[in-house]
Amino acid sequence: MATILPSIFGADILRLQEEIKFLEAENTEILHVDLMDGTYVSNIAFGPNQIAAMKKASSMIFDVHMMLANPERHIDEVIKTGAEMISVHYESTPHVHYIIQKIKQAGRKAGVVLNPGTPEGMIEYLLDDIDYILIMTINPGQPGQKFIEKSLEKIKNTKKMIAGRSIQIEVDGGVNAEVARKVKEVGADLIVVGGALFNGSPQENYQALRMAIQ
């Protein structure tokens, strides 16, 4: 069964505490939190201190998506936030295996993120070390882009590559109810949703998203 992961980056920053309370009232299991440095991606959002503060105020599992250059310099701080799931971009560092080891040694779930232009086969050698693969279905760091349809093929190929291992496939970027249904059908387990959840009526949007993946 697939799970919707609300992305707090899509929420109203002026109502962050209310948005977190709303998500908890909706029995949200996992919250997706973007950490952006303005270098690896052009946006800046949610440093370790902000993530730690949100974590203290919430009972949700935190899934931190590290969108930053030289993540090996910051991984210890991210682990200290208390986040249960931490993912790092394959393209952001030559030390991806070292970072995965640090995450796992801290007792957290480790994920590797693939940009749209990175073939899934690049991380085959990491499959025995990771818990999930995050497939970017837009180019990272820029909200408002359309879902890249070619990603459906990438999700299918990743599912085959996993070959029975207990690795989850996460999808992030341009997801609405229709896209959520499509990615679930080809093998996505964790589906990140930002604007399509928080814009308009979040309650109605959440219901539509959940119905789409039933």
Q: What value does the average pLDDT take?
A: 95
Indicate the overall shape: globular
Q: Please bin the fraction of helical residues.
A: 25-40%
- Major beta sheet, specifics? 9 strands, mixed
Number of strands: 9
Which stretches are low in confidence, meaning pLDDT under 50 for 5 or more residues running? Answer: none
Q: Helices and strands in order, then pairings?
A:
Blueprint: E1 3-6, H1 16-25, E2 30-37, E3 44-45, H2 48-56, E4 61-67, H3 75-80, E5 85-89, H4 96-105, E6 109-114, E7 132-136, H5 151-162, E8 168-172, H6 177-185, E9 190-193, H7 195-198, H8 202-212
Parallel strand pairs: 1-9, 2-4, 4-5, 5-6, 6-7, 7-8, 8-9
Antiparallel strand pairs: 2-3
Helix pairs in contact: 6-8
Output the keywords.
214 residues; alpha/beta; nine-stranded mixed beta sheet; 8 helices; globular
Protein architecture, described:
With 214 residues, the protein is of the alpha/beta class. Helices cover 33% and strands 21% of the residues. A nine-stranded mixed beta sheet has the order 1-9-8-7-6-5-4-2-3. Helix 6 links the parallel strand 8 and strand 9. Helix 6 runs parallel beside helix 8.
